[in-house]
Design goal:
It is built from one helix and twelve strands, in the order αββββββββββββ. It is an alpha+beta fold. It has two domains: 31 residues; 133 residues, Jelly Rolls (Sandwich), CATH 2.60.120. Strands 3, 4, 7, 8 and 10 form a five-stranded antiparallel sheet that branches. The chain has a four-stranded antiparallel sheet with strand order 1-12-5-9. The chain is elongated and about 90 Å long.
Length: 167
């Protein structure tokens, strides 16, 4: 009976040690995650003739103030401050093309509610200047003519980078 109690106590002690190790590692990881949000250097706009697909102007986001050891977990672009410009046409947003400071480029589908999130830049350095442009199509019929030029202006889009600090 005494031997079995010693074994039970030893098993409980080992389990407690492993539990504490796991909890301390998870807490350390969560504490190292942070976010930074910056506004674009200008508005992002697109205007197209009916039936035409094209790109907006390119906007940039300055994340030079982030630490050099900041590593990307996730990137979010918020284009929710949108307004219609131009004629009677309508722009259907299709994608965003995002370029990191290192030059890595990814095109991602346009997000719900004009907010797009991607983890395709995971493990990239976060610090530096990022650039973004959007691709869209004027969904008006080409036969309607120039009265149906469509345009959209996204006022000062915001980019949020979720990052961890590399040790």
């Amino acid at each position: 009976m005494v031997k079995s109690m010693k074994k039970v106590k030893r098993i409980i002690a080992v389990a407690l040690v492993f539990t504490m190790l796991f909890v301390s590692q998870v807490t350390a990881f969560a504490a190292g995650t942070d976010k930074a949000t910056k506004s674009a250097n200008k508005d992002m706009s697109i205007a197209l003739m009916p039936g035409v697909t094209g790109d907006s102007n390119t906007v940039t986001f300055n994340f030079n103030s982030l630490p050099d050891n900041a590593i990307v977990k996730e990137v979010t672009i918020d284009c929710s401050n949108a307004s219609v410009i131009g004629g009677k046409g309508a722009i259907l947003a299709q994608s965003l093309t995002i370029t990191s400071p290192s030059g890595e480029t990814h095109t991602v589908g346009w997000g719900r509610g004009n907010v797009t999130t991607t983890n395709l830049f995971i493990a990239e350095k976060a610090a530096g200047t990022w650039s973004v442009y959007m691709t869209g199509t004027n969904i008006a019929s080409p036969s309607l003519g120039s009265a149906f030029i469509g345009g959209t202006k996204y006022s000062r889009p915001k980019m949020t980078i979720t990052y961890i600090l590399e040790e």
